[in-house]
Design a protein that fits this description.
This protein has about 220 residues and is of the alpha/beta class. The chain is built from six helices and 13 strands. Helix 1 crosses helix 2. The longest helix is centred in the first third of the chain and has 12 residues. Bound molecules: ribulose-5-phosphate. Ribulose-5-phosphate binds next to helix 2 and helix 4.
Length: about 220
């Protein structure tokens, strides 16, 4: 089974989590693209959505889904998104698609975060995937120096990448993240950092992961 087939499988499974009424939060990335396709193919009704990227917004609108300004939404029930890595404590690295800031905003507004991944994204310790950090362009070099000292990793500008917020991405390579909450707080406190792609303070609530044997579900202990 290819990774693409696994993504379709988990995208289909996520349809069950779409609330019958109210707003749905929609993330970004190739797995989410499959999820949006499945919404269309299965003619699932979505009353309204908040979106984490311009690309997601366009795809939702193509399917006739009303995309709302998050400022007009006081909160909502379910956010569905992918990740680059997820650990056994439901912490994640996100931002491979450079949408981490809007993803984190929508995550913070949702009652439930349903993560959709294929099994290749499950890791014991976060950090093999380079950790994305969105930065204000004028602060980039200072942020890179600070990240090097703080993490001991190798921060590198993602060439040619401008986010939907007009900012840049620095990817920190060579990490092994043993305390994700602490690192999230420390990186977020660096002047010029917009958001770090560590989702630990607010991790996933449900993980749906696709395997050759089918989609498995993990629920965060309450
Ligand atoms: C985008 C993200 C994506 O969720 C993450 O990169 C996973 O993408 P994919 O489903 O393509 O593997 O965080 O900013």
């Amino acid at each position: 089974m290819t990774q693409d087939e696994l993504k379709v499988m988990v995208a289909k499974a996520a349809l069950d989590y779409i609330p019958k009424q109210g707003v749905l939060g929609v993330g970004s990335g190739s797995t989410v693209v499959k999820f949006i396709e499945q919404i269309g193919l299965n003619e699932i009704k979505v009353e309204g959505a908040v979106s984490s990227s311009n690309k997601t917004t366009a795809l939702l609108r193509e399917r006739g889904i009303n995309v709302l300004d998050p400022n007009s939404v006081p909160g909502y029930d379910v956010y569905i998104d992918g990740a680059d890595e997820v650990d056994p404590h439901f912490n994640m690295i996100k931002g491979g698609g450079a949408c981490l800031t809007r993803e984190k905003i929508l995550t913070s507004m949702a009652k439930k975060f349903v993560l959709i991944v294929d099994k290749s994204k499950l890791v014991d310790t976060l950090g093999k995937f380079p950790l994305p950090v969105e930065v204000i362009p004028m602060a980039r070099e200072q942020v890179i120096r600070t990240l090097k000292k703080l993490t001991g990793g190798d921060p590198v500008l993602r060439e040619g990448c401008i986010t939907d917020n007009g900012c840049e991405i620095v990817d920190v390579r060579g990490l092994s993240i043993t305390d994700p909450v602490k690192l999230e707080d420390e990186i977020n406190a660096i002047p010029g950092v917009v958001t770090v792609g560590l989702f630990a303070r607010r991790g996933a609530d449900v993980i749906l992961y696709a395997t050759e044997e089918g989609v498995k579900t993990l629920k965060r202990p309450q």
